[in-house]
Amino acid sequence: MSIPSVFVATAIEAVLRAGEIQLSYFGRGVRVKKKGVIDLVTEADLAVEEMFRDLINSRFPSHLVLAEEQYQGDVIKDKPEFRWIFDPIDGTTNFAHDLPIFCSSLALEAAGRLEVAAVYDPTRRELFTAERGGGAFLNGIPLKISTAEQLVDSVLSTGFPYDVHDTIDDVVGLFAKFTGQVRAVRRLGSAALDLCYVAAGRLDGFWEQRLQAWDIAAGALLVEEAGGRISGLSGGKFNVHAGEVLASNGVIHDAMVAVIKDHAKALD
Ligand code: IPD
Ligand code: CA
Ligand code: CA
Prior knowledge:
Elements: H1 5-25, E1 32-34, E2 40-42, H2 43-59, E3 64-67, E4 82-90, H3 92-96, E5 103-110, E6 113-121, E7 126-131, E8 136-138, E9 141-142, E10 155-158, H4 168-179, E11 184-186, H5 191-199, E12 205-208, H6 213-225, E13 229-231, E14 245-248, H7 253-267
Parallel strand pairs: 3-4, 10-11, 10-12
Antiparallel strand pairs: 1-2, 4-5, 5-6, 6-7, 7-8, 8-9, 12-14, 13-14
Helix pairs in contact: 1-2, 4-7, 5-6
């Protein structure tokens, strides 16, 4: 599908505006509330999402918005013509603790397919963009996936879902399994940036489970367009609404799947 350039321009404008709002709150004692025991929301998350919803509603009133903070559980059922998938701050725990590892993440899904991605990290001024079939870019420069050929030469990243207190054996067990086989595993606190870093060749692979579409939609398209591979955790077809992702440079993908399957067997 050919995507009108105004949609791409709007995606970039939205994440840049999100970055300005984030920086206006960052490091200034932002107000924080708990959505769950360890799941936070700040006044900045809410302000960014409000800006975004207003922008899309005013420019493209017929488009759906799937965004984290006002999510009502009713917009993922079908495949609408256009749906914007937005995380106002990915890395809210970092943000609330003044750790400068966060971004906003936006993808446009058209008839069920991810077509446009824009992720902006305002503290490093890094804008990651992709259009299906058009490649992936960092500040306008084409991205290339890493060339690691085996796990022992790979740096991976992962994240822990907000139910980690109740799923330690599973989540940390897999972390331990990978740690025993690779050069290093990182845990940055922003799934969207993890995926951008796979696309940029800074990381060789990333896995996480129990995510939401807004955490991974943009990053998944970026990885694909940079020449990487994206799948479910067991190597099956990637579904942005299924909540799990395995991303890699492609070369180490099957080896990562084998570690995950091994771990799942051990848990049974
Ligand atoms: C979280 C981050 C984190 C991941 C969590 C996500 P949020 O998103 O992406 O890295 O481990 O699973 O929920 O809450 O900061 O938008
Ligand atoms: Ca997120
Ligand atoms: Ca968020």
